[in-house]
């Protein structure tokens, strides 16, 4: 619950950030350049950040805490901090020197002034990413001590600083032409650096109180430190493989158009909300507990792992299936409510919906897959997730090239629809990876995962809810008239958003969608739905 609260707060502020960003920059060239530039130093954060430390550091550190070995746990924390700081500092310096090469690889579609702006932005952003890596170390300490709220609330500070930067200087530069837009993105890059430092700084006091005798070190004398490093290599490679996949999508989108690139990154911000809120929240909370369980006898440890994985996968599926259905049926209203303002138009919202439709296909697989990977990390087996990540990325790269770049032209489709096929291909390969992880996990600990028959029932309830929501939306469209500016570019039809403020339109269709989903799920005998109804009923009685 605490992880969920922290992630929800962070993601809500992230949506506010994206809305303010869309207001001032929309899908302008400078917006695409900034978003692509932010991806490059973020590679360092993802390589050494939360995901890697969760897979290498937390299992060892949490197990030492479970054994109440305070001296060794403090030694491990200090050594990991020292080694991480050294490695991050070296890579930040190298990254700033090699920025032109990174820009050419990640965004080959950038030329001339776009490429020059990307290089300037990346060099500003790189140091801030180093602070985010150290912030992830703080998260590892806090999570292992079951202090979940602060570590996941800290990114709120990062978002607030960026929003404040946009509000402070956005009005001065957003309407001044291309040169002014470039100046705005440079201000924004400095805001990102300041926010990164503050995200790290707000966690430090609590971390220092939790660590008894913290001494940063570069020593490898401890066997536990060597175990962390042993785990570190495969996890880093696994994260690197996943980052390569993100690079491929970014590169392909930049070859399609600037609008496709910026919309892809907007789409990722939206569809990662349920992934983070449910997949990351459950996985982050379960990993330390699964790691503690592995310190017991094998049979007992496997039984506890199965219990935690089964419960976690049911919770994830129950909440992510309707999230995916909402993106599939109501993605235009979702994108409009979150981003449609200023220079981000109704046509942009509709185009973004196509990308969200593709992403909806793999949403459940992406979230459940995080939990399965965490189980392997708890078992101190980071190599299995690495192998399957390689399979996923290899297959995804081939599919993305042929389906997103080659296929639309052959079928006579608009080139920009290739971005929607990018998200679709990513969703398909996510199911391949998750299936492989589950099968291997079953060989290790026994039958685990989402129970058979649960997903069809959940999807049945979600589809019924989605159809009801579409009927409500069509009724509003008939009553109020279609929203102007959409049909001219992407075609009309019954799914055109109503001529209503996007936020009000989303509320009008999301409420019946949610009510129908929970009601049908409860009627189909899904216990989580009954639990939700009982909790809501008790709250309403308390209000009365």
Question: Strands, helices and their partners?
Answer:
Layout: H1 2-25, H2 29-48, H3 50-66, H4 70-97, H5 99-106, H6 113-144, H7 148-173, H8 178-201, H9 204-210, H10 223-256, H11 258-293, H12 298-339, H13 346-360, H14 363-378, H15 383-411, H16 418-445, H17 454-480, H18 487-490, H19 502-523, H20 527-543
Helix pairs in contact: 1-7, 1-11, 2-3, 2-6, 2-8, 2-10, 2-11, 3-4, 3-6, 3-10, 3-11, 3-14, 4-6, 5-6, 6-7, 6-8, 7-8, 10-11, 10-15, 10-16, 11-12, 11-13, 11-14, 11-16, 12-13, 12-14, 12-17, 12-19, 13-16, 14-16, 15-16, 17-19, 19-20
- Binned, the helix content reads over 70%
Into which percentage range does the β-strand content fall?
A: under 5%
**N→C terminal distance:** 25 Å
Question: How are helices and strands ordered from N to C?
Answer: HHHHHHHHHHHHHHHHHHHH
Name the poorly predicted regions.
Answer: 483-498
- The whole-number mean of residue pLDDT values reads 82
What is the general shape?
Answer: globular
Secondary structure: number of strands: 0
Described by strand count, sense and barrel closure, the largest sheet is:
none
């Amino acid at each position: 619950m605490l992880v969920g609260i922290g992630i929800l707060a962070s993601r809500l502020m992230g949506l506010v950030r994206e809305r303010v960003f869309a207001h001032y920059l929309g899908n302008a060239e400078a917006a695409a350049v900034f978003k692509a530039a932010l991806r490059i130093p973020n590679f360092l954060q993802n390589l050494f950040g939360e995901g890697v430390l969760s897979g290498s550091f937390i299992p060892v550190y949490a197990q030492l805490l479970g054994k109440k070995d305070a001296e060794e746990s403090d030694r491990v924390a200090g050594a990991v901090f020292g080694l991480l700081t050294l490695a991050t500092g070296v890579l930040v310096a190298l990254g700033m020197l090699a920025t032109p090469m990174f820009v050419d690889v990640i965004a080959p579609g950038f030329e001339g002034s776009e490429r020059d702006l990307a290089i300037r932005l990346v060099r500003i952003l790189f140091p801030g990413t180093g602070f985010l890596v150290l912030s992830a170390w703080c998260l590892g300490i806090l999570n292992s001590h079951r202090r979940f709220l602060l570590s996941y609330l800290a990114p709120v500070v990062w978002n607030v600083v960026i929003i404040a930067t946009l509000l402070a200087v956005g009005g001065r530069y957003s309407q001044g032409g291309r040169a002014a837009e470039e100046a705005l993105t440079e201000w924004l890059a400095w805001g990102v650096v300041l926010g990164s430092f503050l995200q790290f700084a707000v966690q430090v006091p609590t971390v220092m109180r939790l660590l008894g005798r913290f001494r940063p070190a570069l020593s490898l004398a401890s066997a536990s430190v060597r175990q962390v490093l042993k785990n570190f290599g495969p996890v880093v490679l696994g994260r690197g493989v996943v980052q390569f996949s993100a690079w491929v999508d970014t590169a392909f989108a930049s070859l399609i158009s600037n609008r496709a690139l910026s919309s892809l990154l907007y789409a990722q911000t939206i569809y990662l909300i349920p992934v983070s809120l449910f997949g990351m929240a459950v996985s982050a909370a379960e990993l330390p507990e699964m790691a503690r369980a592995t310190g017991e006898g094998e049979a007992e440890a496997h039984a506890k792992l199965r219990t935690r994985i089964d419960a976690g996968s049911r919770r994830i599926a129950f909440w992510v299936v309707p999230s995916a259905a909402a993106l599939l049926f109501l993605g235009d209203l979702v994108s409009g409510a979150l981003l449609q303002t200023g220079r981000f138009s109704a046509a942009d919202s509709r185009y973004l919906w196509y990308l969200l439709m593709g992403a909806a296909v793999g949403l459940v697989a992406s979230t459940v897959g995080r939990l399965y990977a965490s189980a392997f990390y708890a078992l101190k087996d980071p190599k299995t997730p690495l192998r399957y990540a390689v399979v996923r990325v290899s297959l995804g790269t081939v599919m993305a090239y042929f389906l997103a770049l080659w296929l639309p032209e052959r079928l006579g489709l608009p080139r920009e629809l290739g971005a929607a096929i990018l998200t679709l291909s990513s969703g398909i390969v996510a199911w391949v990876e998750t299936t492989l992880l589950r099968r291997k996990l079953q060989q290790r600990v026994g039958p685990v995962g989402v129970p058979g028959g649960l997903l069809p029932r959940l999807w049945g309830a979600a589809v019924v809810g989605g159809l009801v929501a579409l009927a409500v939306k069509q009724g509003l469209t008939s009553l109020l008239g279609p929203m102007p500016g959409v049909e001219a570019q992407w075609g009309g039809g019954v799914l055109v958003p109503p001529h209503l403020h996007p936020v009000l339109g989303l509320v009008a269709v999301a409420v019946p969608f949610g009510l129908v989903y929970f009601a049908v799920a409860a009627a189909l005998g899904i216990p989580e739905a009954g639990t939700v109804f009982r909790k809501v009923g008790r709250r309403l009685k308390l209000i009365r």
